[in-house]
């Protein structure tokens, strides 16, 4: 706890917010926001232009308090399973409330003031109407009542602003605390324990829902008080008639509780769908190359759209419960007046009490003040329930078991000074299944090189992860020498930054050591080929680098960190023979970098030809046990696995070391431009977005929506005018028309409720499915699904209701109409100023939410290893900087909404004064009924104006997501755009003849020429090998075959059909590609083996048997098991992909570095499978291991994107050729 940074949400160099320095008046009316509003109105805003949250909205010790209280809550319940404890669901909620108790209690006093001012409105409304009805009263009495009425509205404006301001500070604190809790827990989890989709969903969705739910948290008690006081006032007006509204309220409250409980289950189901959809989409976007090579694009589109459909279906079920909550909320508003007036009329008729204007409109106003809080309270039920569920999800995530702490398994200090040891070790990925490794007893010499070898899937990677404490299950004793740990995984971990940033990370600056590492990793010449050298952006997951370059950048990071103990997992697999020899010699060799540093080095590898240079060798057998260990000389002499490899102790193996080992062009998109930040003018709304949205929804649906909104608005406002006619009729002929007006009033209110149900169902459910299926941004989809439909609903209702209220108020006196241009002008100015800044803040809020989520993704990508490198602190500091920037627009956007409300409340207060002055001055000409209508509508006028402007802005900002979808659809070039599409004949390709003529290909915008004037003719059934140094253009050749890079000139034809004329996905699904990085879709083993469902189970089993994967699949559940539960090693994944290609049976097979993560035996198996299963097929094998292709019919050697040799292996090896040099390197 003591090690936690104390600058959670405050940076030392952030200047104080103007809010911290302003006075009471400026703070109450948000005058300190005016400079920012002016700036936002005049120009575009950036994050640096925004004020930081005030000091009391950014407590410096928040994370420490949360962790301390969380730990105490767990300690108190340690005896029993925490998940079974009563109240466990509310644990994190209560911990958060305790840690932020002063901030949680701060809104209570202003909220009580709001209740007081709200309840006072009907009292003074009664005084004004009585004054207008009694001409004997002095005008001064009227003006006094007017002054009191105006003070109520001004006080209500200030109290509301004060209340929400304090609430927003509390929400801002909660958001900061939860983000840091989730991030901190994510950093402590192992790769096996962490659920990527859960962590990302929590950061992007759950915390957002919590902030929404907390806005109404104080309504739970305040609205109860307001309802009680309003009920007391109503009883004074209507007597026993108050009973029925209370019964209605109680019934609706009970219904809301039931609805909220049911909605919680629906929301949990919806969130699971979102998680699954987000996870699949994320994995798809990061593996587009492999997906296209496999020809899975159309299949994956169907899969993702199916998941999206399931998500919307689950959301639709949740929407029904939300509509139910909406109806429960509005039921008292619509029905209570009917029941109250009906009972009152029945009782008053017998008591001869008149229903005059004062009693009518004071009762209606009081019912509004009583019913509206109930409506808010009932509609808040699902949001509060959602908030609690999100707190529970985050709490359960925080309870996730941390990675194993290897320091707790170390023995005495004397042991940790010597060799590393594992005693009776067992390691696995599940406590419920058999251990991958068992009975492990090994010694790892300190300061020496230990290599771990064995067949594919034997557990080499598991042993390394066990040493790191990154497995789910471990048993036995692990003793490591004292010192810092370094680790380099076989799957390179690359962040979206420069090459230098990826290498140095948080290890400081040392130019001499940096250059030494670059030379050792053979990166110096690669950097010369990049447009900006080591300052070049590598893109997301290193997309701008080749596979070998990514591996060496990751290796360089580990070396630059200078750790005492270094673990390497098959990091030579993606390198050509020359680069591999250079890297091994410069790093692991007798005079290598790690030897000079006397590092304890553990290398898991398939490159067994380097075994003579290892000090210690550990051989793992197929059953996960140690079959041999010792030095190379010892193991070669005694026979067994090492001896069977036939490796000679050739001391000249590393004699040829080329310090410029990688001198070719960089791979596929080494100069591909990474996306630039969105440079649009955030203050301007593009044209055509609304038309695009309406077109997506459908013109018929949009027209029906508008008609329903108009009907609902009429039924909502017309009862006020009906009530006025009723009181006028009563004043002329008491009780004569009571039945008629009572029945009409009841009909109007019930019709309004029915229209609300129909309208809400249409708006909230139907319009949610916009027909826009692009999945560009999860945040945009959330906004399109959730915020936009509600914004459209609210703007239609609130806008029309505002117009209706204004028309009813004008009926009081047409002199008021002259004030309307001024009011409209004021609203226009407020909306313009507000929109100019609000829309930009919303943009910035969306943009700055990405870095904290990106920080989580960074941690997930290398979960557990940060602690091994000692980088928890720097990564936290990075999160805090991103969080600080994210808090600025988040907080200011909330404050800006309050500024708008205060402005509109003040405008309403001014209109109250104007209306009161007109009615008092002209009371002889104004009917008390019309005055009652006007004054009763004034109670809701401010809220209507505020809702119109806020929802219009919300709709505008939500339309930003539609704009981004539209721009993505219009601006991102389609692969099919500009090409004439030729339909492929049935069974194409039927022969497998490939003709390449004068092929020159580049990446986007022609920035890099990847292939230059390549010409080759491949006969049907030929086996062709493609080789070359790292960066020579091998992968580019593959991408050109699959139409994934731009062909500038020349052509590629297969069986006489030019591939440039074909639809890309049809081409890729017709060829048979095996990518360098295996990709698996969500679903069963059967589905992944045969996505199109054209093969029987027997055929699938036979294909798996051919690649020796049938046993591994059978032991883990068979064909019906989920693919994600297989936990295959990298080599096993590649074998599974080979089995999948056997089932596809296309006449052209392309293997793109598909043999990189396998041992010699598996390599022999693959060659055997190719010879047997693809005997009469054309096979093009891209490989850096020459042993894989030396038995091919012909071999093509690429260099700097050019074809320099193309002949039979015998012909090339019998002369001084480049192939010979590669073999001898």
UniProtKB/TrEMBL annotation:
InterPro entries for this protein: AAA+_ATPase, ABC1_TM_dom, ABC1_TM_sf, ABC_transporter-like_ATP-bd, ABC_transporter-like_CS, ABC_transporter_C-like, ABCC_6TM_D1, ABCC_6TM_D2
One Pfam entry name: ABC_membrane
Biased composition (Basic and acidic residues): 668-684
Cellular localisation: Cell membrane
GO molecular function terms listed in the Swiss-Prot or TrEMBL record: ABC-type transporter activity; ATP binding; ATP hydrolysis activity
Keywords in alphabetical order: ATP-binding, Cell membrane, Glycoprotein, Membrane, Nucleotide-binding, Transmembrane, Transmembrane helix, Transport
Primary subcellular site in the record, as a coarse category: membrane
Region (Disordered) residue spans: 658-684
A Gene Ontology cellular-component term: plasma membrane
Domain named ABC transmembrane type-1: residues: 112-386, 703-957
Membrane topology field: Multi-pass membrane protein
Top-level taxon in the UniProt lineage: Eukaryota
Regions crossing the membrane: 112-133, 145-165, 323-348, 703-722, 742-767, 788-808, 814-834, 890-918
Domain ABC transporter, chain residue ranges per copy: 420-648, 994-1225
PANTHER family: ABC TRANSPORTER ATNG (PTHR24223:SF399), ATP-BINDING CASSETTE SUB-FAMILY C (PTHR24223)
Protein name, UniProt field: Uncharacterized protein
Organism of provenance: Clonostachys rhizophaga
Organism placement in taxonomy: Eukaryota, Fungi, Dikarya, Ascomycota, Pezizomycotina
């Amino acid at each position: 706890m003591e090690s936690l940074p104390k600058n959670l949400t405050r940076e030392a160099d952030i200047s104080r917010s103007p809010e911290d320095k302003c006075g009471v008046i400026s703070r109450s009316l948000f005058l300190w926001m005016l400079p920012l509003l002016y700036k936002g109105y005049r120009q575009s805003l950036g994050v640096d232009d925004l004020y930081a949250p005030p000091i009391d909205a950014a407590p410096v010790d928040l994370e420490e308090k949360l962790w301390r209280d969380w730990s105490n809550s767990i300690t108190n319940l340690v005896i029993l399973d925490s998940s079974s404890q009563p109240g466990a669901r509310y644990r994190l909620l209560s911990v958060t409330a305790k840690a932020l108790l002063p901030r949680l209690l701060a809104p209570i006093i202003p909220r009580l003031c709001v209740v007081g001012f709200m309840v006072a409105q009907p009292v003074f409304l009664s005084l004004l109407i009585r004054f207008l009805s009694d001409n004997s009263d002095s005008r001064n009495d009227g003006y006094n009542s007017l002054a009191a009425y105006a003070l109520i509205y001004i006080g209500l404006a200030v109290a509301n602003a004060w209340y929400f301001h304090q609430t927003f500070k509390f929400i801002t604190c909660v958001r900061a605390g939860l983000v840091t809790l989730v991030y901190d827990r994510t950093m402590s989890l192992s790769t096996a324990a962490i659920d990527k989709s859960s962590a990302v969903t929590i950061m992007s969705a759950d915390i957002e829902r919590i902030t929404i739910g907390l806005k109404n948290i104080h309504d739970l008690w305040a609205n109860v008080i307001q309802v009680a006081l309003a009920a007391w006032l109503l009883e004074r007006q209507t007597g026993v008639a108050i009973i029925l509204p209370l019964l209605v309220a109680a019934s609706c409250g009970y219904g809301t509780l039931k609805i909220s409980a049911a909605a919680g289950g629906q929301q949990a189901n919806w969130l699971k769908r979102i998680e699954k959809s987000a996870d699949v989409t994320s994995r798809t976007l990061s593996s587009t190359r492999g997906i296209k090579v496999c020809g899975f694009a159309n299949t994956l589109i169907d899969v993702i759209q199916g998941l999206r459909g399931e998500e919307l279906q689950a959301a639709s079920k949740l929407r029904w419960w939300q509509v139910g909550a909406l109806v429960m909320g509005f039921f008292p508003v619509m029905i209570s007046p009917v029941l109250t007036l009906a009972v009152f009329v029945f009782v008053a008729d017998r008591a001869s009490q008149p229903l005059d204007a004062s009693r009518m409109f004071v009762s209606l106003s009081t019912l509004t003040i009583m019913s509206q809080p109930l409506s808010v309270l009932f509609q808040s039920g699902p949001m509060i329930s959602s908030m609690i569920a999100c707190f529970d999800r985050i709490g359960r995530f925080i309870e996730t078991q941390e990675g194993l702490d290897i320091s707790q398994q170390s023995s005495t200090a004397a042991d940790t000074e010597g060799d590393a040891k594992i005693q009776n070790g067992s390691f696995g990925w599940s406590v419920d299944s058999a251990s991958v490794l068992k009975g492990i007893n090994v010694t790892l010499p300190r300061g020496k090189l230990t290599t771990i070898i064995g067949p594919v899937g034997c557990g080499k990677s598991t042993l390394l992860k066990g040493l790191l404490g990154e497995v789910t299950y471990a048993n036995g004793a692990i003793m490591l020498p004292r010192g810092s740990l370094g680790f380099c995984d076989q799957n390179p971990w690359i962040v979206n930054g420069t090459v230098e940033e990826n290498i140095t990370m948080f290890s400081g600056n040392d130019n001499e050591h940096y250059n030494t590492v670059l030379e050792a990793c053979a990166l110096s010449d690669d950097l010369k080929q990049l447009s900006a050298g080591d300052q070049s952006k590598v893109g997301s997951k290193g997309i701008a680098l080749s596979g070998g370059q990514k591996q060496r950048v990751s290796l360089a990071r580990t070396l630059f960190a200078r750790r005492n103990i270094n673990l390497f997992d098959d990091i030579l697999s993606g390198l050509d023979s020359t680069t591999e020899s250079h890297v091994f010699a410069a790093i692991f060799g007798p005079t290598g970098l790690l030897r000079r540093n006397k590092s304890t080095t553990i290398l898991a590898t398939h490159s067994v030809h380097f075994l003579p240079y290892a000090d210690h060798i550990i051989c793992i057998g197929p059953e996960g046990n140690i079959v041999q260990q010792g030095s190379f000389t010892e193991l070669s002499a005694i026979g067994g696995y090492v001896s069977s490899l036939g490796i000679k102790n050739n001391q000249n193996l590393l004699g040829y070391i080329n310090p410029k080992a990688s001198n070719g062009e960089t791979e596929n998109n080494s100069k591909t431009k990474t996306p630039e930040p969105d440079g649009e003018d955030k203050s301007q709304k593009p044209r055509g977005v609304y038309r695009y949205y309406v077109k997506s929804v459908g013109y018929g649906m949009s027209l029906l929506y508008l008609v329903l909104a108009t009907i609902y608005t009429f039924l909502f406002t017309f009862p006020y005018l009906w009530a006025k006619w009723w009181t006028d009729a009563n004043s002329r002929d008491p009780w004569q028309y009571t039945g008629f007006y009572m029945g009409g009033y009841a009909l109007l209110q019930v019709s309004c409720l029915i229209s609300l149900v129909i309208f809400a169902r249409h708006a909230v459910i139907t319009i949610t499915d916009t027909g826009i299926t692009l999945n560009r941004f999860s945040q945009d989809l959330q906004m399109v699904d959730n915020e936009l439909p509600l914004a459209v609903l609210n703007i239609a209702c609130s806008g029309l209701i505002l117009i209706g209220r204004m028309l009813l108020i004008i009926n009081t006196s047409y002199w008021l109409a002259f004030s309307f241009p001024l009011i409209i002008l004021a609203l226009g100015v407020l909306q313009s100023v507000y929109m100019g800044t609000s829309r930009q803040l919303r943009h910035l809020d969306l943009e700055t939410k990405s870095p904290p989520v990106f920080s989580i993704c960074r941690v997930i990508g290398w979960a557990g290893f940060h602690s091994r490198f000692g980088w928890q602190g720097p990564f936290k500091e990075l999160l805090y900087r991103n969080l600080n920037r994210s808090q600025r627009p988040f907080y200011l956007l909330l404050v800006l909404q309050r500024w708008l409300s205060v402005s509109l409340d003040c405008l309403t207060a001014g209109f109250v004064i104007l209306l009161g002055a007109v009615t008092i001055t002209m009371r002889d000409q104004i009917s008390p009924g019309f005055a009652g209508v006007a004054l009763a509508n004034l109670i809701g006028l401010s809220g209507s104006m505020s809702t119109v402007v806020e929802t219009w802005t919300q709709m505008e900002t939500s339309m930003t997501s539609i704009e981004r979808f539209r721009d993505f659809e219009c601006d991102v070039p389609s692969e099919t755009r500009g090409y004439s599409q030729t339909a492929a004949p049935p069974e194409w390709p039927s022969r497998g003849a490939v003709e390449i003529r004068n092929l020159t290909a580049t990446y986007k915008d022609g920035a890099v020429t990847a292939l230059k004037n390549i010409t080759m003719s491949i006969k049907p059934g030929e086996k062709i090998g493609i080789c070359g140094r790292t960066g020579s253009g091998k992968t580019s050749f593959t991408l050109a075959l699959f139409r994934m890079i731009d062909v500038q000139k020349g052509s590629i034809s297969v069986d006489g059909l030019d591939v440039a004329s074909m639809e890309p996905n049809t081409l890729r699904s017709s060829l048979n590609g095996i990518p360098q990085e295996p990709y698996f879709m969500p679903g069963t083993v059967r589905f992944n083996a045969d996505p199109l469902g054209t093969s029987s189970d027997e055929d699938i089993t036979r294909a798996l048997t051919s690649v020796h994967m049938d046993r591994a699949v059978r032991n883990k559940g068979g064909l019906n098991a989920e693919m994600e539960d297989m936990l295959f090693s990298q080599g096993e994944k590649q074998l599974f992909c080979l089995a999948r290609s056997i089932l596809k049976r296309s006449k052209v097979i392309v293997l793109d570095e598909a043999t990189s993560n396998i041992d010699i035996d598996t390599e022999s198996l693959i060659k055997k499978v190719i010879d047997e299963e693809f005997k009469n097929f054309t096979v093009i094998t891209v490989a850096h291991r020459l042993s894989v292709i030396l038995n091919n019919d012909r071999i093509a050697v690429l260099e700097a994107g050019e074809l320099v040799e193309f002949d039979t292996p015998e012909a090339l090896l019998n002369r001084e050729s480049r192939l010979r040099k590669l073999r001898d390197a």
